[in-house]
Amino acid sequence: MANKTQCFLLHFAGGSCYSFDFLKKHIHFNIEFIPLELPGRGKRSTQLLITDKKKAIDDYFQQIRTKRNRYQDYLVFGHSMGATLGLSVVKKMEAIGDIPSCLMVSGNSGPGIAEVQAEIKANQRHAMSDEGFKNELKEIGGVSDEVLENDELYEFYSPILRADFQLLETDNFSEKGIQIKAPIYGLMGTEEKYKVHIENWKNFTRASYHSETLDGGHFFIYDHAQRVGQLIEKLSQRSFAL
Questions:
Q1: Domain containing residue 72
Q2: How many CB atoms lie within 10 A of CB 97?
Q3: What is the pLDDT of residue 200?
Q4: Are 106 and 79 in contact (CB under 8 A)?
Q5: Are strands 31-35 and 74-79 parallel, antiparallel or unpaired?
Q6: SS3 129
Q7: pLDDT tens per residue, range 129-151
Q8: Low-confidence ranges of the chain (pLDDT < 50)
């Protein structure tokens, strides 16, 4: 396995280690596919949910350290919440001398955008009523009508979603001043509200940066699994020039 590149995948709010299963058949055999997850869902459903961003970052950091093979290259891919947390996770990995070949981020225009911060401050989703929260989830997408309309399913998933939103909304811009040594590759959907800010990610790397937009909304990655898989393969190679 030493000739493989490790790919660590960080899920979106409400997601789990199963959230990237759709990508598996599009991942080359030279990639070791390693989806991670925060406590309180998936394989870690018996553990307490995390509502603190620093603890979530530390949790991902420790998972990667445990699973890392230093004889292999690696990259980190995060979607939405996973992209935000991934930046700080990579910074911590670099602090111990383990620099990834790339940080790949999707569905996220990067930390610190003023209008995004203002919206978060005015629209604390984790504290909304159930009715308001369901409407917000419908607008974002990614949560099935079955979950929103079935009381039992909603009661199961809503604490997970609220916890994830809380860790983001109560620590809005702790990434200020962060710059990583690894290159960053950004992806966003053409229908995403803040797609015009995708170039914001270049402020968080000292290396190269590149981005592209693909047709779709916030969860465009499901419609472009083959392209995402191709990028993971290319970006896993340190010789690949952005």
A1: 5-110+175-235
A2: 7
A3: 98
A4: yes
A5: unpaired
A6: coil
A7: 999 999 999 988 888 889 999 99
A8: none
Number of domains in the chain: 1
pLDDT at 28: 85
Tell me, yes or no, whether 49 lies in a domain: yes
Do the beta carbons of residue 180 and residue 104 sit within 8 Å?
A: no
Residue 200 inside a domain? The answer is yes
Q: Which of 172, 202, 227 is nearest to 53 (CA)?
A: 172
Q: And the tokens for 163?
A: 């916890």
The tokens for 220 are 């465009």
- Within-domain flag for 30: yes
What's the pLDDT at 154?
Answer: 95
Q: Which two tokens stand for residue 90?
A: 């990579």
CATH of the domain at 33: 3.40.50.1820
pLDDT at 240: 55
This prediction's pTM:
0.94
Q: What amino acid is encoded at 97 in this protein?
A: G
